[in-house]
Amino acid sequence: VPAIELEGVRKDFVSRGEVVRAVKGISLSIAEGEFFSLLGPSGCGKTTTMRMIAGFEEPTSGTIRLHGMDVTDVPPNRRDVNMVFQSYALFPHMNVWENVAFGLKRKKVPEPEIRRRVGEMLEIVGLTGRERSRPRELSGGQQQRVALARALVNRPRALLLDEPLGALDLKLRQQMQLELKRIQREVGITFVYVTHDQSEALTMSDRIAVMNDGAVEQLADPREIYERPATAFVASFIGTSNLLSGQISAISGDVATVRLGDRGRVLLNGGGHRLGESVQITVRPEKIRILQGEPEGDVSAVPGVVSEVVYLGTYNSYAVTLDGGAEVTVFEQNAHDSTSTAERGDSVWLSWQPHHS
Ligand code: ADP
Ligand code: MG
Q1: Which of 97, 294, 318, 323 is deepest in the core (most CB within 10 A)?
Q2: What is the 3-state secondary structure (H, E, C) of 222-265?
């Protein structure tokens, strides 16, 4: 039985006498334990779809089933899902422990069980030791972890996350992406994740529904979406990025290494990885440098052969074929005093900083 099913779900709003067709008949099915993303630009209907799954919004027509049960008319508090928002909405006057314990207390869960479950959950999100802190004493990332713990401590069968990392800066966001994946694996529940950030969706998701103007344009796994966009909209929205895959072969402190072929290595920042884990890596063409020799130090380094050079005025676009056959696109700025770096047929090394993938 799928964890979540939408069948012909539509939502019309009436706003100042005008009908807004926010969601135009979506049908999809999300498997138990899946990390599923709704990806699309602002205003395409992602939040409305999530709010209907959670029960905060009633569909104009269509059916929503959770674990096989029709919940279209069931109120939010009687659905086995929880939602996490971008604005964490923590109780400012309560400390971390009290924030996380709040829901269990209200449900009159026995005190020893509350202590055990809250302690366990704070450990999972990495906040052991911060029990007595107030939300304002925490960083944005830590506040988001509290919000996550508060939602997960109720043991929902599915967690809905609406742009939960939107308020964080890039580096922290990338770190939290890994954390979220790790936590999802650890608790083993279904995550439905809303984002407008394609690289976030590509790196985290088992499957992605790409939405545009209230409809799903493509529903597939990241590789398929990236390599075979079903519509012009999907192709342009996903944009140019490189998608590589490999396995974590070493972890040292905060940096994980992915071996690519015999000689290549990709370094990933942040905790949350485990040895042998399969990962999808995205790196944007303009973040990659083309070098004649193998770089040293803490950078990603992958050998390949230049298979194409396209001169595009202010920058060049290179296609570089890696040992394993994958093709990587690189954009390089054209400074007028520079002699062209690489030509077709050259053996080169591609290099980029860990925080760029
Ligand atoms: P997203 O989360 O993808 O940015 P939303 O689901 O928030 O998109 O919004 C989809 C569309 O529905 C937008 O055009 C938005 O203005 C409209 N909309 C959302 N909620 C309401 C509402 N309560 N009343 C009227 N229009 C709404
Ligand atoms: Mg939204």
Answers
A1: 318
A2: HHHHHHCCCCHHHHHHHCCCEEEEEEEEEEECCEEEEEECCCEE
CATH of the domain at 45: 3.40.50.300
Query: 226 is written with which tokens?
Result: 């990236």
CATH code at position 292:
2.40.50.140
> Are 206 and 258 in a shared domain?
no
pTM of the model: 0.79
Q: Do residue 332 and residue 290 come from a single domain?
A: yes
Model ipTM value:
0.99
Cα-only R_g, the chain: 23
Q: Residue whose CA is closest, atom 18 of ligand 1? A: 22
Q: Kind of pairing, strands 278-283 and 242-252?
A: antiparallel
Q: Assess whether the C-beta atom of 14 lies below 6 angstroms from ligand 1.
A: no
- In Å, how far are 25, 48, 73, 81, 223 from 56, measured between CA atoms? 18, 9, 11, 12, 33
* End position of a domain, from candidates 238, 271, 302: 238
Of 2-11, 248-257, 335-344, the poorest mean pLDDT is in 335-344
Q: Is 314 in the pocket of ligand 1 (CB under 6 A)?
A: no
The CA-atom distances, in angstroms, between 127 and each of 110, 139, 144, 153, 202 are 23, 12, 11, 14, 27
Tokens representing 34?
A: 């899946």
Ligand nearest to the CA of 38: 1
Whether 196 lines ligand 1, by a CB cut-off of 6 Å, is no
pLDDT tens-place string over residues 188-231: 999 999 999 998 999 899 999 999 999 999 999 998 998 888 88
- For 339, residues 6+ apart whose C-beta sits below 8 A from its C-beta are none
Where is the domain boundary, 238, 268, 288? 238
Reported as a single tens digit per residue, the pLDDT across 55-69 is: 999 999 999 999 999
Domain residues for the domain of 328 are 242-356
